[in-house]
Specification:
alpha+beta, 5-stranded antiparallel sheet, 10 strands, single chain
Length: 265
């Protein structure tokens, strides 16, 4: 399996790239770190540290335990990272660092995948359109709060109360799930598999990169896969940055891991 990766940090001043991407011979991982203002007061490490630590733990486990399920490996990685800063940080606080996750693994003649949170994974199929794997729960729930947040003045007690209620939906039944401090969230991930013979390639994207389709509508997923095959992931991110500039929209960290030659050792 060949993996080509590109990551571009947000252009916002003072921000570091909070995405992570990495690969081992038979697997690729993408982590999109998520931070909430004020988190630095309860976690001295930060979101970029959490994303990098979680990604590193996952890659190690994927290399050393190829027979375990992706959900089990993610659960162990979450527990490892939580233990790394449990003694110094308020890991269970609702605003402590968290992340969304996408994993692709070739196991024998099978391609396995996992998505937790709003990362996107796309499998380019031999026959038919690409299979797009997403976890829409966070987006759906966040949108249900948009009108209430828009009606409340930012910084008021009412605004803060609405935000607290939204954040309380994280890693709760009926809410949405991300990698944070509770390894049980891994069991809520979207998972699946298919024969490697049915797949010509795959791509893992953070939500800052997937906006080429889901926010700006610059392309559909077959077009994205064609651009990746011809020009690589940097071209996708270039087009996203151009669209952000045209729309005067704040940029986000954008990361892509493009996987090809899936049947090769």
């Amino acid at each position: 399996m060949r993996v080509t990766m590109t990551s571009a940090a947000s252009a916002r001043p003072g921000r570091v790239n909070e995405d992570f991407a990495g690969a081992v011979p038979m697997a690729a991982v993408l982590i999109d770190g998520a931070g909430i203002p004020g988190a630095e007061a309860i976690c001295r490490h930060g979101v970029a540290w959490y994303a990098g630590r979680l990604g590193g733990s996952l890659l190690s486990l994927l290399a050393l335990a190829p027979d375990r399920s992706l959900s089990a490996l993610l659960a162990e990685a979450i527990e490892q990272v939580t233990d790394d800063h449990r003694a110094t940080c308020a890991v269970a606080d609702p605003i402590s660092p968290s992340a969304t996750v996408a994993i692709l693994r070739r196991s024998g003649g099978v391609i396995e995948h996992l998505v937790l949170g709003d990362a996107v994974l796309v499998l380019d199929k031999v026959a038919g359109p690409p299979l797009v794997v997403t976890d829409p729960r966070e987006v759906i729930i966040s949108r249900s709060y948009e009108s209430a947040l828009g009606a409340a003045a930012e910084g008021t007690d009412a605004y803060r109360r609405i935000l607290r209620d939204l954040r309380a939906k994280r890693n709760r039944p009926g809410g949405f799930w991300v990698a944070k401090d509770d390894p049980r969230a891994a069991a809520e991930a979207i998972t699946g598999s298919c024969p490697v013979s049915e797949v010509t390639g795959a791509v893992l994207l953070s939500n800052g990169a997937s906006r080429i389709v889901d926010r700006f509508r610059l392309a559909d997923w077959p077009e994205v896969m064609a651009v990746l095959a011809a020009n690589g992931p940097a071209e996708i991110i270039r087009r996203v940055r151009q669209a952000e500039a045209r729309h005067a929209e704040a940029s986000d960290d954008a990361t892509i891991a493009h996987c090809t030659d899936l049947g090769e050792v």
